[in-house]
Design a protein that fits this description.
The protein is mainly α. It is built from 13 helices and no strands. It binds a DNA duplex through helix 2, helix 3, helix 6 and helix 9.
Length: 224
DNA sequence: GCCCAGGTGGGTA
DNA sequence: TACCCACATGGG
């Protein structure tokens, strides 16, 4: 079985074993998605949601509103998520740039070709490859594959890339292995898999739904 | 009390 | 370019 075939089977098994979280069908604006993604950096889903809700309760999350409130108020809302001083400053700065350079909307960036748009996003404060790719895939519907820490680990254990592969190498590889129409669901499902079964310290290969398709799973089952 | 969750950017060699 | 560390809270 070649790699692409294995990737296809893995995706199919993941679809049978996991349901996409509710927020997937929530319609956030691109700017809200940017804000949530920045908040989520190095932060659990639960605390990310709480922080974003704290913000939304105070005002509609638009660049104009963020520009007009004090950084202390943003800090208060974000405290629960951790790293709140950094993130509050970054959100202020992002609001300022979006209003002043992009007419209050990210849409003009999204209309550019993928790599061009990606470069512009990467130049924004607090926006690294993961955040840029989330925006491009989720909001701009561009064919790019965001790599978070779970996907990084899962890709290596599955043998899709070798252990020292970096962000860009993993992204290119997954984009080759999956069809562009599946990037979104594959991204979500691989994260769910990583969190539930393919944990950093304690992989649960015996219970993992794709252990038969994973070199690491086969190895562990053999040794059991 | 300790370890885990889980990206970016600034600094150093 | 490649690492190392700061950022900070909440839950098990």
């Amino acid at each position: 079985m070649d790699e692409k075939e294995r990737a296809r089977k893995i995706l199919s098994v993941l679809r049978e074993n996991f349901t996409l979280p509710r927020w997937v069908s929530s319609n956030r604006t691109p700017f809200e998605t940017l804000v949530v993604t920045v908040i989520s950096q190095n932060t659990s889903d639960r605390n990310t949601a709480r922080a974003f809700e704290n913000l939304s309760k105070r005002f509609m999350v638009t660049p104009e509103n963020l520009l007009n409130v004090s950084v202390e108020e943003i800090e208060d809302a974000l405290r629960v998520a951790g790293l709140y001083r950094n993130k509050a400053r970054i959100l202020k700065k992002l609001a300022e740039i979006v209003v002043e350079k992009f007419g209050g909307s990210l849409e003009s960036i999204f209309r550019l070709p993928l790599e061009e748009a990606r470069k512009i996003l990467l130049a924004l404060p607090g926006v690294g490859p993961k955040t840029a790719d989330v925006l491009l895939l989720f909001c701009a519907k561009k064919p790019t594959f965001p790599i978070d820490t779970h996907i990084n680990r899962v890709s290596k254990r599955l043998g899709f890339v070798d252990g020292k592969a970096g962000y860009e190498e993993i992204r290119q590889k997954l984009q080759k292995l999956f069809d562009a129409k599946d990037y979104f669901s594959a991204h979500i499902l691989l994260i769910l898999l990583g969190r539930r079964f393919c944990k950093a310290r304690q992989p649960l290969c015996h219970e993992c739904p794709i252990n038969a398709l994973c070199p690491m799973g086969e190895e562990r089952l053999k040794n059991a």
